[in-house]
Amino acid sequence: MTKKRPIDWLLLALVIVGALLVIAPFYLVLVNSFKSPVDYATSGPLALPETLDFGGIVKFWERVNFPEKVWNSIFISGIVAVLAVVISMLNAFAIGIGRVRGRSWIVLLFLLANLLPQEALLYPLYYMFKSVGLYDSVWSVIIVFTVIQAAFGTYLLSSVYGTFPKEVLEAASLDGASRWQILWRVVFPISRPTLSVLLIFFFIWTWNEFLIPLTFLASNANQTVPVAISVLQGDRLMDVTTTSASALLGIIPTLIFFLIFQRTLTRGITAGAVK
Questions:
Q1: DSSP secondary structure string, 171-192?
Q2: CA angle at residue 35 from 29 to 37, to 5 degrees?
Q3: 3-state class of 73 per DSSP?
Q4: Which candidate, 244, 222, 215, 118, places its Cα nearest to that of 232?
Q5: Nearest C-alpha neighbor of 245 from the set 33, 8, 27, 89
Q6: Whole-angstrom Cα distance, residue 70 to residue 231?
Q7: Residue 113 CB partners (closer than 8 Å, separation 6+)
Q8: Rounded to an integer, what distance in angstroms lies between the CA atom of residue 99 and that of residue 112?
Q9: What is the DSSP secondary structure assignment for residue 223, as one 8-state letter?
Q10: Contacts of 69 (CB under 8 A, 6+ apart)
Q11: Residue 158 gets which letter from DSSP?
Q12: Which of 191, 222, 226 is CA-nearest to residue 206?
C-alpha cells in the first residue's frame, strides 16, 4: 500500500472542506423546512427540528399553487431542451460535416452569442414580443431559451462533428445514403451520448433561469418555480421556515430529474463525444 504524502492529506482536507461548504446550504434548507416559526426562534437555524412541522411546506404549496408552477417549469424546460438539441444537431451537421463556407466565423458567431449577457436582450425582446402578441406567454420564454441553448449546443457540436471520421461518412455515401439518412442513421446514433448530456444540461439550465421568465411572464398562472419562489420571498408575511420550504420544493423536481437521468449523464460523459 502506497504511503500517503503530506500533499495528499492536504488535498483530502481541501476536498472535505469544499464538500462541507457545498452541503451546508442544503442542510440549512432541509432542517428549517420542517420547523415551526417558534421552533426556529428558540433553537436557531442549525439545530434539528424538535418535531416535524409541515406548516411551511403547506403554506408555500397553497400560496403559490405549486403544482401549476412545476408544470410550467417542466413544460418550458422540456420543450426547450428537445428543440435546442435538435436545432444544435442540425446546425452542427451543416457546419461541422457539411463544411459550409466561413465555418470558423460562424462558430465564432455562436460563441459570441453565448457571451452576450441576458440583460442586453430584455429591451429589444420585450418590444418584439409585445408587437407580435407573445408577451406574457410561455412561448416567448421557450423561443428565447431555445435560441440561447441552441447557440451553445451548436458551438459544442460543431467542434465534435468537425472531427467525425470521414471514412464512416464516405462508406455511407457509397452505400447510397442521402445526407438526411447519414444524419439520422450514422451521425445521430454515434453522437447520442453527447446529445443526451446536452438534453439534461439544457433542461436544468432552463429550469433554473430567473431573469427572462420574470420579465416576460407577468401573469401568476404562467410563472415558473424560481419566479414564484422569489416573488413569494418578497412578501412581508414570509417567515424563514416557509422560505426554506419554498427552496426545498424548488430543488426537489430538478433533483428527481437528475437522479432519473444520472446513468444517462454518466454514460454520455464517459463515452466521449464520438466513439
A1: HHHHTT--HHHHIIIIIHHHTH
A2: 110
A3: helix
A4: 244
A5: 33
A6: 15
A7: 148, 151
A8: 20
A9: -
A10: 223, 224, 225, 227, 228
A11: H
A12: 226
Q: How many residues does the chain have?
A: 275
Q: Which three cell numbers mark 147?
A: 435560441
Instruction: Please report how the helices 262-271 and 240-260 are oriented relative to each other, as an axis angle in degrees rounded to 10.
Output: 50
Q: Quote the cell numbers at residue 200.
A: 439534461
**If you search the block for the grid coordinates 421557450, which residue do you land on?**
142
Tens of pLDDT along the chain (275 residues) come to 566 677 878 888 899 999 889 899 889 899 999 998 888 888 888 888 888 898 888 888 888 889 999 999 999 999 999 999 999 999 999 887 766 777 778 888 877 878 888 888 888 999 999 999 999 999 999 999 999 999 999 988 888 887 777 788 888 888 888 888 888 888 888 888 889 889 999 999 999 999 999 999 989 899 999 998 887 765 545 678 888 888 888 888 888 887 887 777 666 655 554 44
